[in-house]
Amino acid sequence: MSHGNGQAHTQTHAHVDKVLEKGGPFTDEYFQAGKDVKKFLREQCKVLIIGAGGLGCEIVANLALTGFSDLHIIDMDTIDVSNLNRQFLFRSSDVGKSKAVAAADFVMKRIPNVKVTAHHNKIQDFGDDFYMQFNLVVCGLDSVEARRWINATLYNMVDDDNPESLKPLIDGGTEGFKGQSRVILPTISSCYECSLDMLTPPTTFPICTIANTPRLPEHCIEWASVLEWPKVFPSKKLDNDDPDHIEWLLNKSLTRATEFNIEGVNWSLVQGVVKNIIPSVASTNAIIAASCCNEAFKIATTTAAYLNNYMMFIGNEGVFTYTFEHQKRESCVVCGGETMDLEVKDEMIVEDLLEILKQKAEFQVRKPSLSNDQGNIYLQYPPQLEEYTRQNLSKSLSDYKGQTILVTDANLPFKLSLRLV
Amino acid sequence: MIKIWSMKKEAENGQKKKPKTSAAQLRVQKDITELELPSTMSTNFPNPSDLLNFELIIQPDEGMYKGGSFKFTFNISNNYPHEAPKVKLTQKIYHPNLDHQGNVCLNILREDWKPVLNLNALVVGLQYLFLEPNAEDPLNKDAANDLLRDRNQFKSWVAASMSGKPVKGEPYDYVLAR
Ligand SMILES: [Zn+2]
What we know:
heterodimer; A: alpha/beta; Rossmann fold; Arc Repressor Mutant, subunit A; Structural Genomics Hypothetical 15.5 Kd Protein In mrcA-pckA Intergenic Region, Chain A; 3 domains; eight-stranded mixed β-sheet; five-stranded mixed β-sheet; 13 strands; disordered N terminus; B: alpha+beta; Ubiquitin Conjugating Enzyme; binds zinc ion
């Protein structure tokens, strides 16, 4: 793959230059060949890579070799010995180090003129100001929760008065021999949350099976973690990252497995079950990362049409890909529902707002509940919460001017975003 | 990036910076304010500004568990509705589908949970456990066997256990409604 000297790097540029110096039959109408686009790619475009695991290692190396030179990579994890088989930027001497730092150092050492800034952090450690500095975000995560967070954050950052506030999110994901890559243009295309119903929820087993009729090694492990742990340590929370805790679960599960003649309980399975780890395959990661980086390149340079908007890859039997346009969901928690400005007079109070909403025929709203980012403003139900929030009904709407209030009601697809002006 | 930026210029849809309510939080707001609780059920929020942690009290008005008051805790993670809420009974009771630690055997709480389900579905499912205890998927195997063997005997044991009397030497919590 990568080359260790400057000459090879120039050669890499030469290949990329071929598509940047003139158009072709599939070139996008907005494409402008020449030095500006090269300059944007190689000097100006700033890309954030989220995740420095199996996908992230591939993504950061690919982007650097494509010619992006200002990369940031963020990951909260440290390197475990079990990562070394597929997270190819790490060596055994890196075990225990920050994934982001090790990946950044490796890429900078091997590829000249690339700056990779590492952040050994959670994505939630940063706010809008941090994310606003990037042109593109490429995600190689295995966590649904983290993806939902970044998706909502980028969506909420979009400001119509500033086109550059729209940060395309390229999301890659793999599960064994399957994977997908998708291009999310916040507020324009469907978002990650739109497809939440399509995901398989984390594998769980019926609790009665775990308790009484275990048949699989996983049943024994869940018995130990879900039922036995809280019974033996009622006030101690199970810590998936504590080797002593895993050891305890392993011993318990082994005893249970012996009792029911079940084979296959071992340390890595225990870890896999409690952390809900899905087996990761290096070749799938490479394919999905390549697709994500290809999209990043096309979006940054406008050389060719980018993915619209979802590509799934299935490599279990043969190789199959399917590309389709995933549609926005009207009932999406993040991007669904209308956004509108509502003009309010200074003397109006929150109670008046409820009346205005109920009178708007287009919404058919009957029992609206209101909240903003500070918390709940008024909740219609249950009685305890209604009573608790009732005090806010007499608050002046001028206190909320310039803010967005989220309205939910059984008659709305999901929500309505109201900006009080 | 030129194309994306020009697309944004064309697609004016009144977007301004939005509040940072998490998707899970907002979904819970919707679920809770749209709950349809019958008179036999009520909720209690120990901290009314925290919608992610609350109690559900069920007081069945029919069936073998009539007269009891059962308190469940709901713990909802920031990954809701991808992950189901964690639900536990706070009392030790004699019931085939609940164990002595308060774990509940209800399929939609675990293996059959889907993001399209909501809190209302869970609440209805929990209520049903008291109307129709199910001996087929036992969590308390002993209680399940008792129910299969002799329904009337089981019924009187349920009544005894609810008033805090031991059943077959096993002590239970007093759960009768006051
Ligand atoms: Zn959406």
